[in-house]
Amino acid sequence: xxxxxxxxxxxxxxxxxxxxxxxxxxxxxxxxxxxxxxxxxxxxxxxxxxxxxxxxxxxxxxxxxxxxxxxxxxxxxxxxxxxxxxxxxxxxxxxxxxxxxxxxxxxxxxxxxxxxxxxxxxxxxxxxxxxxxxxxxxxxxxxxxxxxxxxxxxxxxxxxxxxxxxxxxxxxxxxxxxxxxxxxxxxxxxxxxxxxxxxxxxxxxxxxxxxxxxxxxxxxxxxxxxxxxxxxxxxx
Length: 236
Prior knowledge:
Nucleoside Triphosphate Pyrophosphohydrolase; Arc Repressor Mutant, subunit A; 9 strands; WHD_NrtR; ADP-ribose pyrophosphatase YjhB, NUDIX family; WH-like_DNA-bd_sf; NUDIX_hydrolase-like_dom_sf
């Protein structure tokens, strides 16, 4: 079979597009994050070592295989990059504009989004590959293809889901204070919220319950620890 680059324009138009998968994964506490770094959303990226976009960074992913589902491909390529299993993975959107792969074979990308909490990295192997790194979404490097658009779409999806508190649950550990829950919510929506209003809404939602445990070592009134109700915990 002739390679893509040996085909003329007419032949390329008759050639069906290939299908690939890319995953935008979010974490608030990726491994080896500098301690003095402000809290925010981080994503793992892989630096390309060959054209097109050699030297630019891209989302974890790759072409689909005939014997693997899209979700299997998304999970395997993400874990290969991060060395850790996400606690949540969902299909995000399809990206298939003609312009997105003008310099190479026409490719349609099925994008996924994923979430990690800090404990998801506890048993992960250290990332020794210099071409793999986590970046804050506020300071992204040069990105390949249309991966900036994919990341932006993933952030929008995350923000739309912010009213559903189980999205925050996938960033938090099992037990948390209301202040910790509010901090995660503020990172997701990228704005400050009124603590009193947030507390009232969270407690009246029916989605969190007290654990009966309070924060140790507090100077003043110790904060209560909460957990998500079972109906939300099952959505991991």
